[in-house]
Amino acid sequence: MALMTGQAYIESLRELELEVYFMGQKITRVTEEPMFQPHIHTAAMTYELANDPEYREIMTATSNLTGETVNRFTHIHQSIDDLVKKVRMMRLLGQKTGTCFQRCVGLDALNAIYVTTFDMDRDRGTDYHEKFKNFLAHVQSKDLMSAGAMTDPRGDRSLRPSKQNSPDAYLHIKERTNEGIIVSGAKAHITGAINSHEIVVLPTRAMGADDADYAVSFAVPVNTEGVKYIFSRQTNDTRRLDSPLDSGNPKYAIVGGEAVIVFKDVFVPWERVFMAGEHEYAGQIVETFAGYHRSNYGGCKVGLADVVIGASDWVADAHGVGRASHIVDKLTEMISMAETCWSCALACSYEGAKTPSGAYNINPMLANVTKLNITRMVYEWMRIAQDIAGGKIITLPSEMDLTQPELREVLNECFRGREGVDVDDIFKMLRLIENMSVGAGLPEAMHGAGSPAAQKIMIARRSGIEQKRALAETIARIRPDKYFEKIVGLPETDYWKNVAARIAEQHHG
To answer: Is 100 a catalytic residue?
Structure first.
């Protein structure tokens, strides 16, 4: 089974004809559109590194289906080591691209479906798990990129899916036939959608019996009839049409090229359907997916932190203050926060466990702690990056002005740093920091994999607060302590009577 290279991946996209819209225009050739190319290059990195001997151990795995080597983004975790290597892969790719590399959602969707369909088949006598394994073998054999599609528009969020005024507020089954299902609705904020090969759909929330038609999971090729894509806007995204410098990260862009996916009477054959009305399992598949996905953020966002920390140090040095005590203190604070989040990602991986399906899952409590820390600390280390870089990151003139013959000399003098540093390199690094610390990456860190409220709900649910109360009650002598009784060799009541007697004797003596 051959692994695709970065170039081979891009070539594979040329064969696909999608219905894509961006800024009022219908895009006919995805790989030729300048707005899309950086996102495609970023995804290509996930293929290219898998072919590099230096990174092969992290970027590839042995398939549990075939025993062959596959890209880790198509792999079902088979051990604690797999979980750890997954977050190491996330940090590596964040370091290499400085942005979202788009394949995490697809990977986590594959693993969540694998775990949940096993349980459905075991409990309900369905055959979803075998069908999913056949689909997964196809993905692995072709080395395909899957875009995970979970989030629905949701309409009035105080209402359940079946109570919405518009049925399309949630993707749903319109009809069941002998050959398959017909679905309509939409999925929003879908990373890497226009440059994937497959769309893997999951429900977005727990469902009740009345919501059964919304409890649906399936996979379709990206060019399936009835599927269209509307590419989303990002902060300063069209700057890449102005100049490489002004875009900040011209090679790999901002965030992950999100899109709205519209499904209009889309037919899905039964062999590609992995849930069709089993509402009791919607919550499980969502929670399983969320745990996997939230653990990632301690890897990918820390990889981005490595980049912005390096950029901040570079800019401070270029301005002659690299070794100033306040700069060292700020950089150290950034590093400490990033490594705290990294520690969380490792912890939730090392504390993972085997599921009945044979696949391994992370520790869900620690995964939610990981993501909650990210929602706070990314803003803080990016704030420090802004502090170190200074106001230049939001007042730097455009490349068109910087290269004007009559302006270049005076602008070079305005932005020059210490002797020996090329002012053009200062421009590049300032734009990179602007791109990373001011742009769309911040709200993505907040809301990707669920908002902070979602993490707090899961942390509270798994907090074991009653057990913590029991610990306190035992130490406070409200509950009996069998270990203490063994230590002192007496029942607690007798021991404390003796203590009271000794205290009284000493006091009155």
So the answer is: yes
